[in-house]
Write a structure and sequence with these properties.
about 300 residues, mainly alpha, three-stranded mixed beta sheet, 11 helices, 3 strands, about 5% strand, globular
Length: about 300
């Protein structure tokens, strides 16, 4: 029996999803469909407002445009597949399709980590070195920082995926997840995965934790700078420009660190799926709401755009 097992090659994976109850599946379908529509529409609105509003042609909003475009890509990599599996009778994905989804999902997640770190650095320069801000964060620097965020993450994801997919998969082929994610796929490998898990952890330190440290250091410096300000209005203005970014960082990093930088155990798998919902579905949907509701510049630009449409 064991001899037969190791010669079987997995050609597709089967998703367990979030629930096997048909009624719950139907509710989840409409909830996630609504979240997906809000995410795509909301981020398109943010991108459009930034592009048409001259006042928003600054480094901060250049990075926000990248973040909004990224969120559209990120949620579109996973949610359509999840919606199809939720109501469809066939909850499978070909091995090649799983590999593709895993690569892009991990890439976009990594890009968001690095990009949030870059945005924190941008806020640090703007508040702590305002006189040199336009010199330090000129257009070419912003483009280079964005390009590094995207390129480094795509390359890192490629290394992790090559290592993950080079392992033998000979059955079972049931993924206890709603999309192909590295930790859940690794559990199905019919060999020792400790080396690959170590590589994933190392890259998590590099791509997740180092930008997180940059965010902590940047905001520590910002806080010290704000406390030295004599004007209460100046302190309020400085902190208000950081509030949206800090909220997004808390939502995304809190769930991502819990998922990728913790010991893997059977007892944590169900909770892992719920956590994955937050950073793949909920956070991309909330980001445009956070930046529009807590950002006076975006709200003002949105009102002006609506007024122009009415006239």
């Amino acid at each position: 029996m064991d001899h037969m097992k190791i010669n079987i090659t997995v050609t597709e994976f089967v998703f367990l999803g979030l629930s096997s109850n048909p009624k719950i599946q139907l509710v989840l379908f409409f909830v996630f469909l609504l979240f997906y529509i809000l995410s795509v529409v909301g981020n398109i609105i943010i991108i459009t407002i930034i592009q048409i509003e001259p006042r928003l042609q600054t480094p901060m909003y250049f990075f926000l445009t990248n973040l909004s475009f990224l969120d559209i890509c990120y949620t579109s990599t996973n949610v359509p597949q999840m919606l199809s599996n939720t109501v469809g009778s066939k909850k499978t994905i070909p091995f090649a399709g799983c590999a593709t989804q895993m690569y892009f999902s991990l890439s976009f997640g990594m890009i968001e980590c690095v990009l949030l770190g870059v945005m924190a650095y941008d806020r640090y320069v703007a508040i702590c070195h305002p006189l040199h801000y336009t010199v330090i964060m000129d257009q070419s620097t912003c483009v280079r920082l964005a390009a590094i965020s995207w390129a480094s993450s795509f390359l890192s994801s490629m290394v992790i995926n090559v290592l993950t997919l080079s392992l033998p998969y000979c059955g079972p082929n049931v993924l206890n997840h709603f999309f192909c994610e590295v930790p859940s796929v690794l559990r199905l490998a019919c060999t020792d995965t400790s080396l690959t898990e170590l590589v994933v952890f190392v890259f998590s330190i590099i791509i997740v934790f180092i930008p997180f440290l940059l965010i902590i250091v940047s905001y520590a410096r910002i806080l010290l700078s704000v406390l030295r300000m004599r004007s209460a209005s100046g302190r309020h203005k400085a902190l208000s420009t950081c509030a949206s970014h800090l909220t997004v960082v808390t939502l995304f990093y809190g769930t991502a660190i819990f998922m990728y930088m913790r010991p893997q155990s059977k007892s944590s798998r169900a909770g892992g799926k719920v956590i994955a919902v937050f950073y793949t579905v909920v956070t991309p949907m909330l980001n445009p709401l956070i930046y529009s509701l807590r950002n006076q510049d975006v709200k003002g630009s949105l009102r002006r755009a609506i007024t122009r449409q009415k006239t």
